Amino acid sequence: MNTLGDLTSRTSNNFNLIRMLAATAVLISHSYPLALGHDAVEPLSKWIGLSLGELAVITFFCVSGFFISLSRDRAGNTTDFFTARFLRIYPGLTLVLLLSVFLVGPFFTTLSAPEYFRSDETYDYLTHNLTLFSMRFQLPGVFENNPWPGINGSLWTLFYEVSLYILVGALGTFCFFSEGRKFAGFVMFYAALYVSFKALMLNSTLVDDFYGTESFFTWSLPFVLGMSFYRYRQHIEHRFIGFLPFAVLAACTWRTPYFFECFVLAWTYLIFYLGFATHPVIAPYNQLGDYSYGVYIYAFPIQEILAHLFKGIGPLSMMLIAFPLVLLAAIFSWHVIERPAMAWRRGLAGLLSSRLDNKKTHWTRTGKGAA
Known about the structure:
Elements (H helix, E strand, L loop, with lengths): L3 H5 L6 H22 L8 H4 L3 H23 L3 H31 L4 H6 L1 H12 L25 H17 L6 H24 L9 H19 L11 H10 L6 H18 L15 H18 L5 H28 L2 H26 L1
């Protein structure tokens, strides 16, 4: 019986397809509020208390936890790791933000061009979303009369994604992935924090999502599970029957305060089972490219444009019109922006490492001279 560790070493898997399906699920889920407004009920919400979009985000995070840990393990050093993460996120993000501010915004704003470009909100949208702190989701006068006003509400996940990249980078720097006791200690520490905060949330009406703490624990859980699946990959067998106990546990906790945690555990196991369950029919998809990030970051603004142009458009019509347009944008983003940017990894990482080494040498010499 193969373990996840055995299968990780193979080049063929289904995770490009899984990420693409998750990005498409976000598009489908967002079509309801973007077409009908805040009161629209998204798919799956009534059944499991999670929308299809939230399920997709859980999928993204558990897969990221596994493969970002793998990336850190294989990276030559910390600089190489963070360079790779930067080049995977920021070139695509920068382009979609620039297009939103300087193309979509001026064309669709209700303000005059001078008013739009004089507004601080215009440039705050760009700078805050590039730093990922205090993110902005609206541009002045843009889509204000849409059922769901805004420009790109999907970007909120990037703050948590990058925060967790930093966590993985830090753990890798101190050998947490190579030393079992250290990683087990991290998992126990995280679990203690998670359980403590969960208990506080359940037993106090005074605790709200202050400073994003609840959101951090919600979305870090599948990511840490993905990290754990990676660290213990040699001990996790790849078989469907292994999913069943977790599925039963999730079913038994349905409509209890602990359903989310049990469901995420079951879903994470299922995702890795499906991700490594390769089939000759599915395998060629990997040759197309990883369009999931482009679909994710372009879907929301394109759907907002459709809601503006076609007043009263329904969710199904929005999905059918938006998907091919979003896919074209994602294909362009992958082949022209994302993939070429990732090819800069070794050169940029080498340059940064060299400069850091030079600075360290300078500081050392300066310190010795001062002494």
